[in-house]
Amino acid sequence: MTEAAESPRRPYGVKLVRGPFIRLEPHPEHCEDALSFLAYAARLRADGALLAADLFSGAGGMSFGLEAAGFKVVLGADHDREAVETHRHHFGGLTLDGDLGDPDLVAHVAGLIRDAGVTLLAGGPPCQPFSKAGRYKIRHRVRTGLRDPYDERRDLWRSYLEVIRLARPAAVVMENVPDMALDREMFILRTMVHELESLGYAVEERAVDTWRYGVPQFRQRLILVALRDGHAFAWPAETPDKVTVWNAIGDLPEVKGGWRPAGGADGWSDYDSPVTGFQKRMRDQIPDADAHKVFDHVTRPVRPDDEVAFESMTSGTRYSDLPQGMKRYRDDIFQDKYKRLDEDGLSRTITAHIAKDGYWYIHPRQNRTLTVREAARLQTFPDRFRFAGPPSAAFRQIGNAVPPLLGEHLGTAVIAALHEPRPAGPNTQRMAASLADWFSGLAHRNVPWLTASTRWQVVSAEIMLDRMAPQQARHLWPLLRRWEFPVDTLTAEDEIREIATWIGREPRGEQLVAVATELVGAPDMLQDDERLSNVAGISQSVADLAILVVPATLGAVVPEDDPDERIGDDAADREADDAVSEEPVLAGRGVLRVAARVTGEDVDRRNRLTDGRLAVARLIGYGDEARNAHLGLVELAASLCRPTDPLCSACPLETMCAGASADSQDQLLLY
């Protein structure tokens, strides 16, 4: 290993250090072609092995965890050269380097999975944002039962669904970022659940804090588990102890920033022995000859000025707290540009960005950023796991990986569910259909503006009548319903104020007039899903309800006489984007209370934007009944599923509700 000379153009004299560049040989049981792969899989099955495949596998974090749980991973696929080399080194069978957006490769992979007898398919397909026009095209096909013309798109989550459809494995695990649940419509997740249920799978999804399963970092992932034939899945129990940063890396030797061992890729740092239970696990199965060696304990050089800044920092120091002379970046934008890890707490999330910038991961005691091995430890990769390529590639693979320990817990729970199958509870489609049918059949509603014909009617009712006694709201609604648009309300301004006086809500009357005045001056705002909540006096929850009750016009996207026609040019797509409503998943108006009772979980008290909205999405689905089911959920929260003394016996979800009361009142509220 050699170090590059100092660059004369760098005023701070940072040493540019390359390498070591690690090359990894394929696994001894690596298969070169489909024929040898199928023979290999057949031998393993004959020995009683449960087979797994890992798509979008990266370096193999999920694969490693599944093998620790008892599966044998026989197939992996990714399109990152170094990650493929890493996976091929650590796992037998077939590791493919290819673009899973290619329909031919998807069909090939699905055929291999089916013919090999793979039990579990795992994967973390990247999920890119979609235009509203693109969402509607997919939604239309979901709701009308048409299979998506897969070869017309390159969306990798669609590739994953297509493999499942063709191969029909007994179990599916999908891992992704929790942003899928933060999308206001939760479009991709709801579509996937709908299509998996249509294929006969029972589906569970949850936002998982990985530290609850022994991973020493703040890292939340969205996990979806689907079991074929309607079998139930039980989430694994949490581990009792939290693993801290120092629990994880405190045994690793001190090194200077930029230090490299002699011997290049074969070089090592001297190692003493593990102390904590986590460290002992990380050293498990290390060959005796390597018992006092640790590999890949290398990191970036440290600029002299950064070393001074690091020295002055504790785990509680923000970048903006540093003296002005120590800052190289604007502290109003980069308030947390530097972060020294807290040795007694959890690491911040290890992401692929660590390959480019290690300032978020300053060692808790040493004035440098993390080494490759330390980052791997925080992701729960054991010390015997090596990564192909230079350190930057290793960091990228580590940051992109599923923590192996999380994969192990999930794999163990899947095996338990497969070995002792039991029927799952009601699926999303059944609950959504029950809610939609109930809502459509109601003669009276406690929230009558859920059947409004214009968005302004919804906004007006929410401003004037929200939290009013149902009987009084039903009496006043016909008066407000007359004014379909803001200009109508302004025309009847005196009457609005008079109504407000009747009900003792004069300030709300003034608010309604003010909102109407603003919208008359900007009429497009009322139909703009993104900007409606920006209007003074219209909250996000009111805007979301108006969008749900009265979706924007869809005719510009798919003509009624030709629902399969696709918009082909960018201009038309942009025009369609302005016309399509997203039907957001609501987290207000009491729907979280209903979701908490039905699921038996405290989603109304946990994160409303992840746990709560995931539970709501489970009730409303994404099929043809989704909108009416959603409206039914709002009405249910306002009528039967009251905060106290719920009328469970009249609820359409009574037989599916974990919290249904056996002795609920028999009489109904008057609608």
UniProtKB/TrEMBL annotation:
Q: Which residues form a coiled coil?
A: none
List UniProt keywords, sorted A-Z. Methyltransferase, Restriction system, S-adenosyl-L-methionine, Transferase
Task: Tell me the Gene Ontology biological-process terms attached to this UniProt entry.
Answer: DNA repair; DNA restriction-modification system; methylation
Annotated region Disordered: where? 559-579
In this chain, composition skew of type Basic and acidic residues spans 565-574
EC number(s) from the headed UniProt entry: 2.1.1.37
PROSITE patterns on file: C5_MTASE_2, SAM_MT_C5
So where does this one cross the membrane?
none
Catalytic residues (positions): 127
Listed GO MF terms = DNA (cytosine-5-)-methyltransferase activity
Keyword field contains Hydrolase? no
PANTHER family tied to this protein: CYTOSINE-SPECIFIC METHYLTRANSFERASE, DNA (CYTOSINE-5)-METHYLTRANSFERASE 1
What the record says about family reads: Belongs to the class I-like SAM-binding methyltransferase superfamily. C5-methyltransferase family.
Q: What is this protein called?
A: DNA (cytosine-5-)-methyltransferase
Q: Which organism is it from?
A: Embleya hyalina
